[in-house]
Every structure is written in structure tokens, then in C-alpha cells.
Amino acid sequence: MNTPVLPEFFNEMFDSGGVRSPYRRLEDWTRDMPAELRSLKQSEAESLFRRIGITFAVYGEGGDPDRLIPFDMFPRVFATDEWRKLERGIKQRARALNAFLTDVYGRGEIVRAGRIPERLVYQNEAFEKAVCGFQPPRGVYSQIVGIDIVRTGPDQFFVLEDNCRTPSGVSYMLENREIMMRMFPQLFQENRIAPVEAYPRILRRTLASVAPLKCTGEPKVVILTPGHFNSAYYEHSFLADMMGVELVEGQDLFVEGDFVWMRTTEGPRKVDVIYRRIDDAFLDPLCFRPDSMLGIPGLMNVYRSGGVNIASAPGAGVADDKAVYCYVPEMVRFYLGEEPLLENVPTWQCGKQDDCKYVLDNLADLVVKEVHGSGGYGMLVGPKATKSEIELFADKIREAPENYIAQPTLALSTCPTFVAEGVAPRHVDLRPYCLVGETVELVPGGLTRVALTDGSLVVNSSQGGGVKDTWVMAD
Amino acid sequence: MKLLVTHHSSYVFEPPTRGVVQSLRLTPSIFDGQSVKHWSVTVEGAEMGASFRDGCGDWVQTVSMLGPVSEMTVLVEGEVHTTDLAGILRGHREHVPPAAYLRSTRATRPDKGLRKLSETTLASFPDASPLEQAHALSAAVSEAIAYRPGETHAHTTAAEALSLGLGVCQDHAHALISVAHAADMPARYVTGYLHSTDDGQAHEASHAWAEIHVSGLGWVGFDPSNQCCPDERYIRLGSGYDAMDAAPIRGIAKGAGDESLQVSVAVQQAAQ
Prior knowledge:
By secondary structure, chain A is of the alpha+beta class. Chain A is built from 13 helices and 23 strands. In chain A, β4 and β5 (157-163) form a beta hairpin. The radius of gyration of chain A is 23 Å and the shape is globular. By secondary structure, chain B is of the alpha+beta class. Helices cover 19% and strands 42% of the residues of chain B. In chain B, β3 (47-53) and β4 form a beta hairpin.
């Protein structure tokens, strides 16, 4: 007799009742696809990606810039009602993060109320005194909020981290869809899949809606890139193309009088909104790092006096480090007077004595991250680590406990994925991109990252992760 | 005291630069200890733009000059009436929370020596109030670092100045900020002018000192170079984490050339 084995992880396609409804159509699709066709399609997808040149590392993780991130053709699917719930939670969180930023650069009510430790905010590396007392247009600090979400059950979604500065990867969301539509047009006729291609248009509208007060007429929006050697340069130029705005480097802009100007063949042209894809430290050598060659001297003075807007606002990073993360649910309650719709992963802050002791005693079961780290570097995955790795890491934690947080190893959901042997479940996460300007908007979709190695829970592209198209079924 | 200030900063660029942008923090602070009668900041041939009061309460101006520029002079002239508030920065409006000034920079980061100086100093005043502690730290810095020009440079850190035992007002201010941080007291760098009297002490007309946040009093200035708190001889311009952050003039000249700077500052008492 066959005893059904209960899977340890939530499988987004199959549950005990068989195929879950959002995936129903895909069952026939994979069953009817011969192996030869599949490998043909897979190599077609790869050559398409190579042709468009999308080979950069996701989320600025570094690594070989010419390496192709593996694309998996099996889509990740959300039902309408699942997405609605997520959408409300994501928008709520994006609003709370912006309210927090407005507050900590204003009166600091949340600190005065004792709802978050003062030290965590004002001594944070990302806290920027240069913007204290300044209200950016519409009170928005983070116009593009990337919220990383993992799923552990049918109704269990957790936020893994927030990205309030310049979250990357959205070009994958758009390109993955584009390529799927080109290769499997039939699928898109048979299924009602919510479109994502409005993203660049909404992004542009969002950026235009936060033009400074001194801007009269149609706001001039540009994307500021550190240059072609940057691992996300493809995304910068892709977004500029899709939005129909100029892609500039620091040397293309200059400050004169009360404004920032762009050099053009027809003479200087005033710039109103800069979507910058460079870090705060490099924005303006007169305010931040004096040796920065990537920024625009005087930019911060123009910003502070209302001549230009910068998205995201300098200093926005104070809302998204991994220690401040613990307080985001509190932000939702404090500013919005609502209960958080999306939960945080339970997190131990090693800066707290009791937490630190627990973490050191249980390293083998925990995932430990650096507060300011990203991209899966500087991280300990307890269950996968050797004894000596754990001991080395324990020393690092003891040396600077406040630099670390720890979380339980999460049972990330799986999604069917094409592998050498056919189709097999692989772990996934999700990064949707919430746009905050005059309105708060979210296109139905995001970037799904998949851990391609069997059993791996690390989805980072630098550690063998791939990407998938993310579908939200329309009503 | 009625003080008259004349401050020239003359830059020569060789070969001429393709353009200059500067951020100026050259206007006296607004607080109960000083009132500005008249004040002007001018740069001939340049466009003055983007000006605002920042979160620290400083008036910031932007200057841009299109190239080629071979010479440029920033001229500051004005009259300020000062009163002695024993260093207390009373009536100063600012938005940056004091806790933000617990952060150290490369220049002010306490090393072992600075931590030890801070600890031993405070240990010998076990029942001292925060104000007395701040005074003790300032005195300890004056003692540990003798005033001597020419021994340190613009990038010398507090730790380096302490181990050298020599320095100028910038090093004194950095060291005081550092020992205050080691004692968990918010502290910052202040720039300004100082009227010299013939008292045989070390003075520079262009001056820098530190402020320590003392609970109950707010920000209080301490000048280890002159072993005193700022009084009516001092004019306060602006503040920051360290000398670079608080610099009255931060600028960039485009192109790789030589840049030379000549500064003259005169702070005189106005005729009664």
C-alpha cells in the first residue's frame, strides 16, 4: 500500500488534494511537453537572454558580470486572492517604511515613544544627518520598495527583508515575462495572466509625481548610473529605455545656481528628478565621500533647497537594515494604527544580551546574517555549516554582536522546476516592487528566485540561484 | 563684544580649471550668544545659488563658477555682536538629534589610547556631574596634546595626534570629540572665528573647537586649545562630525591641475 508521504515543505503546485488550482493548466502543459521540445525551448530561452545581454548579477551581488543567471521556464503562480492579500500587505509595509523615514528625519516620534531603540536609528551607518529636518516631495523617501517574501504554507507569508534604497532585479521580472510570452504564446492565450509590462510606465509616473515644487511643467526624469562597469548597468539602461528617459552618469550632470543641469547637444537642460542607482556615499563629493568621481558636486545643496528630487532619498537606508527590520511591524502599528498584514520572520538581535546567548547556543539550527550585509555573503546557514565554520562564526559574533541577527531556518515553499531528470520541486522566494509617489502601486508580479540545487534553501544568484516568471492569475 | 570679520580665501588654479563648485558654511550661527549686524559672502564672477538652513542650523550656500577659472576669491565680511554664555549654545534651532553625534568618523574614532584617556580622566572624578565630566575631558585633552603648529596635517586623526602628543585646534577638537564618544557623550566639531587678545595664549583667527551635549544644558562648547569655553571672543559658524564634515568651504575644481590657497582672516573689535 502506498502511504502518502507528507512533504516537509509546502509545495505550491501539489498539496494533499492534488494540483492546487492556480497551477491546474500547467499540469497539462508540462505533461504534454516532450523532453526534446523542453531542452530546445530551454536553449532558445538562454540564447534570447544572451542576445538581450541580460547577464548581470541579481540584486548587485557582484560575481562575474558576464555570467548568465539561469532562467527556469516553469512559472511560479499566484491565485488572485493570494495576490490580493500579499498586495495589501506589501503596500501597507511600503507606507509604514516611508512614514518611519519621514518621522526619523523629522520629529522622531517613534524614538521618543520608545518603540525603537534610539541607538539603532541615530547611530545607524545609513542615518544621514544631512537630510534631517527636510521633507522630500510628497513626504516620500523610498519611491521603489523591494520587499523580499518567502512562503511556508498556503497562507503563511513572511517578509525576509526590506529594500528601501535602490532594489534591483526588476528588469528580470519584465524580461522573464517577455521571453515566456515569446516562447509560449499559447500559454498566455489559455491562461488569464495579469500583465506586468506597465511597470516602467508606472515607475515613470511615480518619479514624475515626486518632482520638486520648483519644477513647473513636465518633470525631467533621468536615471543616474555609476557606469557600464557596474554589475546592474544592464538594468539601468533597460529601465531608461523602457521609461523613455535619459541614462546619465555623474559627469553628464552639473550644478549651477539653484538647479541641476544635464549637458545635451542643444545646451544645458534642467533636471527635476534623479532616479539614482548609486549609493549615498558617492552622490555628492561636497557632502559625502570627497573622493567620489561618480557623483555631482553640489547635488545635495540643490536637493535640500528644493531644486531637484533624488529617488530614493539619501538616508532612506536607515529603514532597511536587518536590525531595524525587527521593528517594521511596530512601525505599521505606530504610524498606520493597523495590524501588520505580513509577518516578519522571528529574529534574534545579537546586540541584545539574551538573544545573543540563545543564538550562540543554537548556531547549528539558525541562519545568521550581518546587519548591513547583502547577497548571501557574510552569512551562516547553521544546518549546512561544519563545526569549525560554526566556531569561527561564533567568534565573529562575540567580537561585534550588534552586527548580527539570527533567524530560524525557514521551510521555504517549493515550486516545480525543470531539472535534468524532468520536473522537481525547488525552493523559491519573491521580490515584488512597490512604487510610492502620489499613489502606492504594485504591478501583479515580481521576481521569483529559485534555488536550483536540490535541497538548497539559498536562492541568491551568487550561490547557484536562478529566476522564474511570476504569474498572478487574473479574475 | 562687537567684532568685525574680514576673511579672504583666494584660490589659484594652474592650469585654469574647467569649473568650480563649492559648498559654503560661512555665515554665523543664530543663537543667544551672537547677533549678526551685517554679513556678506561674495565670490566675484561666480553664481551664488542653492542656499538653505540645514538640519544642524547652519546656513549653507552653493557657489558655481564656469571655467576656465584661474583665480577665485571667497570674501567674507561682516559684523557680529557677541555675549559670553560660558560656552552654552542657548537658543540655537536645529533638527539633528544629539544621539546622532555619538557616531565617530575616521578622524574621531577612539582607539585604545583615547579610550584610556577618557576612562582614567573620568575615574578620577567619580561624583562629577556631566558638565564637570566634560570640563575634565577638555582639560585632559589640553594636557595630553600640546599646542604646536606644523606637526600635524589636515588628515591627522585624533588617535594619531594623541600618540604624537602635539597638534593644533583641529586635533584638539577631534581628540575631545573622541574621548567624549568613548564616555558615550554626544560631541561634535565646530568651526568659527576667534578674536585674539594679547594674552600670550595660542590663538588663530580662524578657529575650531568642540561641543559636547550635556544633559540639562544642551550643547556646550569647549576649546582645549585655549583651555576655556567659547566666550564673547568667539564667533560660531557651523558644526559637523569632524573637520571635513564641518568645513566652512568644501569645493571641487574640475580637471587635474594644481590648486593653491591663500587665506587671511582678521577679527577685530569694532570701535565703540
